[in-house]
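A reminder before we start the practical. When you read a complex entry, don't treat the lines as separate problems. The point of joint prediction is that each chain is placed relative to the others, so the output describes one connected object in space. Small molecules and nucleic acid strands, if listed, are placed in the same frame. In the example below there are four entries. Take a minute to note the order of the lines before looking further.
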Amino acid sequence: MNGSQSAFLRQESEFRSADTDKDAAIVSFVGRIGQFGQIADAAVLHPAVDRIGVMQRDQPIWAEQNHADRIFVVDTGFAFAFSLYPDGRRHIGDIFAAGAICNWSSVWGGMLIENVTFKARSRLVVFRRDRLLEIVAEQPELHGAIERHENARCHRRQQRCRGLIALPAMDRLALTLLDIQDELRAAGGDDEWMSLPLTLRELGDLTGLTDVHISRTLRKLQDSGFIEKRGKRFRLHADPGIKAALDYQHFFAG
Amino acid sequence: MNGSQSAFLRQESEFRSADTDKDAAIVSFVGRIGQFGQIADAAVLHPAVDRIGVMQRDQPIWAEQNHADRIFVVDTGFAFAFSLYPDGRRHIGDIFAAGAICNWSSVWGGMLIENVTFKARSRLVVFRRDRLLEIVAEQPELHGAIERHENARCHRRQQRCRGLIALPAMDRLALTLLDIQDELRAAGGDDEWMSLPLTLRELGDLTGLTDVHISRTLRKLQDSGFIEKRGKRFRLHADPGIKAALDYQHFFAG
DNA sequence: CGACGACTTGACATCGATCAAGCGAGGTGG
DNA sequence: CCACCTCGCTTGATCGATGTCAAGTCGTCG
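Here is the predicted structure of the whole assembly.
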């Protein structure tokens, strides 16, 4: 766990700090947040950008080392928040597609700290927390948009947690897949066919099941017609009946 | 489900609206919130009090009928928030002891609406939402204290949800009992021996288990020494090792 | 007294975890 | 190019954990 931060630092491309690079890197962020409010000029965010990096492999970023003064935003790819129990069990608390803020804290009080893992080939933008908060404080529109966006995330997470406590495995997985789809669409992936951004092991840690059982349950969902698969991509057939049974609401993409 | 609101109204004691009654009814609220900030004068809250009522039996208050313009505070007794799945499954999302606000919304965006059930013999204070928010807006200290209190609740809930997804039954129940103890102590119950404010069925809906399994798991926890029982009251022996295994933190009472 | 709800207990069924083996894609080094 | 490895995934066999159903006790309330 200890060498992680330096490994993380080593993988960054320090030279990518020109304004054009910053523009390219925060376009997904601005595009996503912009759905929740008007953003006058994305360039105001430039001074808060600390670094831009690409993950060569799945890379955990440990909360106690990095979260206090940095804010991480997914530019491309996928990330998830997790915490570990002493017995080695891993719990994945939330998922992040392009444009998502991985450790914005104001909604839930910033008290429950989770680590974040970026999946391989993901590009992330690192903001200085203090500077970003300063800039946001001067831009009420931007601030409101971010808060609304994070509120939606918080709500979706609570909806998922509720189902993961109360429902059987097939419903848990269906609910989680709907959430993943919602997150991918919020990130701008308007393609109806999507590929799974997580391994079965990670899906297991997200749903509280084992990877083996996820594999079997996926097949059942496929047999039931909820999942349609085409090669490595899949599509969900979530008719209103299923959504009602899961008490599911969309919070990002309609 | 439809006659519920009128049943709820019928049970109230309309005559209890003198200032002395209001004082008596919000003392638990003020005492609890006061742990999170200075409250100059509790009497400023009087104009926001709509009614004071005592529940003769377990009484659900349905969100879609009552939550929009009312805020419910437990004065004495116990309450819990719940939602229902179409198949009849009930999920209990949070628990409230004396002094707790049952439907304060600003922390998590007020989007995930849950119903609230007050247990028999509980006394509740009903505030007019708009007036309470006006008063609070003019009292930054009070507002901050409430927000901090609700942040702590939100955090504790997230901690519990995480464990309820990832952990086996014994750990789930132990975690939940610790939370109940935390809530009771935050309400001022400094007695080390406490009695269970929920039925086994409700504990099941809170943990995602069945009442039968709760019964057996309680016995196991008793055999393991975590629970010490004396008549109907019990005490928890949560040594640091257990708390570490559950990754448990206190958020209200130390 | 009877009715009812909370709880317990036992027998059994089902769900999901665990362990082990094998397959295939992708990466690495010779 | 091949040999070899690792990782993600699948499948089967088996075990343990949890749910379901049913019966019975106890206390409370009318």
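Discuss with your neighbour: Chain A touches chain B through 32 residues (CB under 8 Å). What might explain this?
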